[in-house]
Amino acid sequence: MNSDATYSRPPESHERESAGRYSLLRLLREGLGGQRGWSRAWHKAEPRPRYRVVIVGGGGHGLATAYYLAREFGIRDVAVVERGPIGLGNVGRNTTIIRSNYFRPENIRFYDYSLRLWQSLERELNFNAMVSQRGTLNLFHTESQRDLFTRRANQMRLLGVDAEAVGRDSLRELVPLIDLDNGRYPVLGGFLQRRGGTVRHDAVAWGYARAASALGVDIIEHCEVTGIRRDGARVSGVETTRGAIMADTVCLAVAGHSSQLAAMVDLPLPIETHVLQAFVTESVKPVLDVVLTYGAGHFYVSQSDRGGLVYGGATDGYNSYGQRGTLPMAEEVAAAALTVMPSLARLKVVRQWGGVVDMSMDGSPIISRTPIDGLLLNGGWCYGGFKAIPAGGMTTAHLIATGNPHPLAAHLSLDRFASGRTVDERGLGPFPYAH
Ligand SMILES: Cc1cc2nc3c(=O)[nH]c(=O)nc-3n(C[C@H](O)[C@H](O)[C@H](O)COP(=O)(O)OP(=O)(O)OC[C@H]3O[C@@H](n4cnc5c(N)ncnc54)[C@H](O)[C@@H]3O)c2cc1C
């Protein structure tokens, strides 16, 4: 950090318009008083000319990083700069699944840390994010898949993380609609992680934003970063649609747009951008009490609290920044859905959308310094960065504050690609679309 830099004084948290604590008592009081006592959940900040830290991207990772910087490290001279309203990126477009059923020990530790942070998050943020640990259930369909999943479950258990083998009879009880003996890919069994589940996605952005703002962080919406300023080998700030903002540290947390931002300083990243779709059906009575993933293709489904079945599959397989997706993948995912749960054919799909995901070359994320001093990267989240938001935010904040990687994220550095120490969770090689 630049010790002799002059900063305009960051606001003390008590000077801020505060949303106050949310509680049952307050809900009752506001209900009786005509709902006139509520104030904005987070302060609508105007950009100041200089900050100690500028975080680009008001998604889950950017907001969580800002919150942990302020709470854990006392660094409150922080701005989160978001080109639109917060929460409209992937943090509000994903299928809300959280879990830590990984194979590589370093990934299991990282994602399980995240899962543990989720468990206490609502109380900590004083925000209802609808954390629901209903269990994630992975089906397997061949003997080799059984071996693979058994190996993964054993690895998890060795590290103290829960994983249970589930036989066909128990599967019928857990998922009454399942067709175990379907003609395409009969189901041999499954593995359940009971602590896995879902979290209401956009509430995560709102909850972190509210808590970070209360600690003095500036959340600057409708402010697109259009350039990154350098002073020799060091970053010195960002150009935005609302003027230049100087900073000692700039952290990119822009998910599917990581390569675009890094290109502003001629930094090529081992990332390809792909579109990933999701779908939701009309609402029905409760029919599915776990998050179910199908092993013979790419299909996963859960039931939202509103009753819709939320499902998705693989990326469309070509590079795109379009948040839409195409019909062939929609058909492929629907075919997988009907194989394993044929009765879903009677439901209408009421919404479909896409998000742009930053697929890394080894399928694992990047939390790292870059060759440019003071420029840090949180990205490469592929399909799975939602579940990682608490751990991603905490470990990125640690990197910013201390200058050193957090021990649980040390394997996620950018230079692993140059040195060949990739973290290829699925052993698929350097083919981003395949991870
Ligand atoms: C359809 C779909 C389903 C998914 N399902 C799951 C799931 O079930 N579980 C899971 O763990 N993960 C899932 N993911 C992945 C997960 O959503 C992402 O990995 C994660 O949300 C990315 O981190 P983020 O929240 O910080 O990203 P985002 O919310 O995308 O945040 C990045 C922000 O940067 C902003 N930005 C971009 N460029 C600029 C700029 N120039 N200036 C200023 N701001 C900028 C964007 O507007 C955006 O708000 C899914 C993704 C998709 C698309």
Walk me through the topology.
Elements: H1 24-32, E1 50-56, H2 60-73, E2 78-81, E3 97-98, H3 105-125, E4 136-140, H4 143-158, E5 164-166, H5 168-174, E6 189-193, E7 197-198, H6 201-214, E8 218-220, E9 225-231, E10 234-240, E11 243-252, H7 258-263, E12 271-283, E13 291-294, E14 299-303, E15 308-319, H8 327-340, E16 349-360, E17 366-369, E18 375-379, H9 389-402, H10 416-419
Parallel strand pairs: 1-2, 1-11, 2-8, 4-13, 11-18
Antiparallel strand pairs: 3-7, 4-6, 5-6, 9-10, 10-11, 12-15, 12-16, 13-14, 14-15, 17-18
Helix pairs in contact: 2-6, 2-9, 3-9
The protein binds flavin-adenine dinucleotide.
Written account of the structure:
- The chain is α/β, with parallel strands linked by helices and 435 residues long.
- It has helices at residues 24-32, 60-73, 105-125, 143-158, 168-174, 201-214, 258-263, 327-340, 389-402, 416-419; strands at 50-56, 78-81, 97-98, 136-140, 164-166, 189-193, 197-198, 218-220, 225-231, 234-240, 243-252, 271-283, 291-294, 299-303, 308-319, 349-360, 366-369, 375-379.
- The strands form three sheets. Strands 1, 2, 8, 9, 10, 11, 17 and 18 form an eight-stranded mixed beta sheet that branches. An eight-stranded mixed beta sheet has the order 5-6-4-13-14-15-12-16.
- Helix 2 (60-73) crosses helix 9 (389-402).
- The longest helix has 21 residues, at 105-125.
- It is globular, with a radius of gyration of 22 Å.
- The chain starts with 23 loop residues before the first helix and ends in a 16-residue tail after the last helix.
- It binds flavin-adenine dinucleotide.
- The site of flavin-adenine dinucleotide has 39 residues, from helix 2, strand 12 and strand 16.
